[in-house]
Amino acid sequence: MKRLFSILAIACFMAFGTINATTNATVATTVATITQDDGAADEAPAEELSFTQNVKKRFIEGGPFFMGIVLLCLILGLAIAIERIIFLNLSTTNSKKLIGSVEDALQSGGVEAAKEVCRNTKGPVASIFYQGLDRTDEGLEAAEKAVVAYGGVQMGQLEKNVSWISLFIALAPMLGFMGTVIGMIQAFDKIEAAGDMQPSLVAGGIKVALLTTVFGLIVAIILQIFYNYIIAKIDSIVNDMEDASITLMDLLVRHKK
After folding, report:
1. Which of 255, 183, 171, 182 is nearest to 219 (CA)?
2. Do 102 and 114 touch, CB atoms closer than 8 A?
């Protein structure tokens, strides 16, 4: 009987020891797994690139040749657009104020006083007024012809170099599409050389092709916005010139009477 209790006690002790060992092993394994997961979670979040860094990365991936030409189109187009915007803003004149000053000068000091007012005023409207007043001695018809002719000259100065912006607008996406075609050709060359259609072979060429297209379209969109603003500004100045020229002729007709 005593021997039976001893055997049972030993069996219980061994069973308890086995369960305890299994539990400890399970706990250790769980702790190790959690530790590994925590380490992986700490390493998982990668550093996100800023917008500028991402654009720079994509630009480099697109290749230096076509991307460099597209960038050159953007730089030259923006330079011409900024120069035109500054010139047009400086060419804008308060026509109503100028007309009032010229009318007062005609009444007080005659044509020479009006010419002096135009000479001291900047802008195409004042230049047209000066040319018209300078031909008043030859008659109203000669003054009108001078106004019309010099108005065309001033319009040409306002539109100077604007055609280059439209050229770059058309050229940038065309260069992007050319880069796309060349990238696709290179991708098919790799497929032909390998004799097998593998995504890793064509992914690089296709990505380069798409990047050149994207950057070409972005350049065209940016320049198109500036181009439309410049054209609208030129139209506004030209309309102002035409209205002011008609008013000047009316003033000259009243002054002759």
Report:
1. 171
2. yes
Q: Is residue 42 part of a domain?
A: no
Sign of the C-alpha dihedral computed for residues 180, 186, 190 and 195 taken in this order: positive
Total domain count, the chain: 1
123 secondary structure, DSSP code:
S
Inside any domain, residue 58: no
Pair of tokens at residue 247: 């008013």
Structure tokens given for 5: 């209790």
Instruction: For residue 35, give Cα distances in angstroms to 71, 122, 188.
Output: 49, 77, 47
Mapping DSSP to helix (H, G, I), strand (E, B) and coil, where does residue 135 land?
A: coil
d(Cα 234, Cα 230) in Å, to the nearest integer? Answer: 6
Give the global pTM: 0.71
Contact 103, 180 (CB under 8 A): no
Residue 39 CA, chain-centre distance (Å), reads 43
Number of CB atoms found within 10 A of residue 80's CB = 22
Residue scoring higher pLDDT (63 or 132): 132
Q: What are phi and psi of 50, to 5 degrees?
A: -75, 170
% of the chain with per-residue pLDDT over 70: 70
Domain residues for the domain of 163 are 65-256
Residue 15 lies in a domain: no
The reply to whether 152 falls in a domain is yes
Q: What is the pLDDT of residues 26-40, one digit of tens each?
A: 434 443 444 444 444
Given CA atoms 196, 201, 206, 209 in this order, what sign does their dihedral have? negative
Average pLDDT over residues 68-82: 92
